[in-house]
Specification:
The structure is a homohexamer of 160-residue chains. Chain A is 28% helix and 32% strand. Chain A is of the alpha+beta class. Chain A is elongated and about 55 Å long. Chains A, B, C, D, E, F: Keywords: Lyase, Molybdenum cofactor biosynthesis.
């Protein structure tokens, strides 16, 4: 199955040769959701962490992690990222609240930024957990997935 | 709410002072699950990636990421990890297969290794995604959570 | 001059052998000051960067850099930091405002955390510069120095 | 105030989207000064650190730090640096000597290298401090600032 | 001797200015050999490390290290690598077996990837040593050298 | 074969659990040799790189790499190094000169520093190559091996 491009003939992982691919503008959006209790949500909203905002720390951590993606994910190519931003939205859920985290990443290069976007939201979710775990360790990081990507030979991709 | 220990009086995040805490043996287990299609599962099982094994790459990436946790999660204390191992289990699901990833981490120190275990499984899941995404980009990383922790003043914790 | 402990007999830098030193509680406080124009100070105070706060980013960057000190300063020993916090104070100056940044670091180890504290305030100052340089590139980072250190065989030190 | 380009609408820091900017040749020069006592200056000049030269270590540390800038300063874009060099000059001061450190950095890219140059001189100064602090802990890092930058849409900049 | 391009007029190392060099396609192949005992070779071949394969770990470590070359070798320029693969071959030797490791790296840039290829094989050899040293610490890493490079103004190079 | 301690039951590499091991003083010495032509040796000795000294850069790079060992070698435990120094000796060889590089590392911990010493000399040799390759690309890094280690349950080890 030639689709497993990340493997060589001996079954060992390689960094795929992209030297012949075109430089195009590429974007990727990834999403992660973290489920929190009403108690924790209220504590955050009511300013019980004073002026502090866990989303600030989560966004900074996510951006810094996106820049480290090629150091974290073994076969990722180094990429010169050209822009990263996040949105955060709280939604009432059955048992409390869901915090929906989205990261959008842009670059122009020979390979896409899907892994960078997925790494960014994963680390943002882990950082939110870390900043709030003294109050509630039962938080669960729920669905983490690629929402969309554009650019590159394999074409655009939209989840679902 | 004094429980938000990661914040100082001005609402800015700090690295909590743990100098007065005791050195104890600490363990943490975290879990992440990745949903894959039957097509992708069959390709892996039928050896279509030849001798290659995405779980090898995922485990190595997860162990290396656990060692980088204090560099990835802003307020994490540096910790001298003393042992890390993973289990991987495939389970039939409604729409394909679930790969259940667990990491167990040990150390003796003044603070726990929950974030290290959560980072390890998150990066293992992201790496599995990266190694297989040429075949199927629709994989979703599902529940990521702390299964249990032992050791430390705040006592043991078991999910649910 | 035996005081130049960081050099070997051939005049090349070495990492000093501290294996015979005692583990003691050690603290260090370092300070850096950044001079900004009244125009920039007013923009920040009047909320012209909306809810954003450059001190949040500076503090997070400073804490993360302190953890990287042994990777940045060639002959520094790796140290397990146990607590870091910052204070920030604006003071009216002759030509605008001074932002006075102090970092306090704690550990128990065989060597001190002076370089970690100096690195923390330097990176916090550089980050403040980066977050505001689109408004004013003329900011100057003024005096950066070790305010005090305690613990260790060489005794306590207080600036001036 | 649209000039605070590093912040999004919610007041959280973002990595600015530079994908539409032109690739141009860019240079930056930054300067830092470190004040040292006559006693320390004499010890260095009289070869009391044998053949050793703290400026060698400072220059190497500064070049390596410049390459890490995007990992140290949270919102900095990764940049492919194309050349870095330093000058060091000792000058007699009122109370001893001033060591004036300048770093010049070149690249061709979509964003400038000001932060890289400032990081380079800051880390060179911190490293000089580290290599000599066993002799004299009272050294003070004095003015650190951007001397000039060229290239890019915002035009050239010269200090004062 | 102007050939020592990595040094400035004061005898301190600099990162060479490559801004005027052309972007060309560049490749490099490096080789390292590790000598192992018949006992260790047999243990690996007979599956005594069960399904485990030290070459998997060595290849992954070598690829990740190649991406870190500019962080490890002080005067190396950062480079955007575009493809890395390895070959491993065991050969009977006088006293046991030789494992011959070759890495091939591709990029298009202003400077070559010789140091990246040499770093890749060196780290692959060190990792093989680490994975097997519990069985046999007497392994010796033998000749490590640049096999060939193509591209760039200085022309192609072939060992011997 | 239980000696392959770095592998779990499924044949995947793990970070060995050392939590039950004793903290002891540990040392390791490793050696690497680089063969250089008479032309290159003479150029260095005759001061053709002015005041510059490739051994300075090699030693600094080796010390910094030793501190990164757990980040470079996948299954290495993080270790708090307590002292590192190098010796360099040139010896006349059949075809030119051999530069013999030795690194000595100390720590007190639950696991040894063999990989740190081997990484230190390997990176020192690679850095020497990088600093001189503009003059002569035919240098070969010859035998790299563990000279001795002391401390730890497995006892002392001396090469040959």
């Amino acid at each position: 199955m030639s689709d497993f491009t990340h493997w060589n003939e001996e079954g060992r992982p390689k960094m795929v040769d992209i030297s012949q691919k075109d430089v195009t503008t590429r974007t990727a959006i990834a999403q992660s959701t973290i489920a929190l209790s009403t108690k924790l949500y209220d504590a955050i909203q009511n300013g019980l962490i004073k002026k502090g905002d866990p989303l600030q720390v989560a966004q900074i951590a996510g951006i810094m992690a996106a820049k480290k993606t090629a150091d974290i994910i073994p076969m990722c190519h180094p990429i010169i990222l050209q822009g990263i931003d996040f949105t955060f939205n709280y939604q009432k859920s059955e048992n409390g609240y869901d915090l929906i985290i989205q990261a959008t990443i842009k670059c122009s290069g020979k390979t896409g930024v899907e892994m960078e976007a997925l790494t960014a939201v994963s680390v943002a979710a882990l950082t939110f957990y870390d900043m709030c775990k003294a109050v509630d360790k039962t938080m669960v990081i729920k669905e983490t997935f690629l929402v969309q990507k554009t650019g590159g030979k394999s074409g655009d991709f939209f989840h679902k």
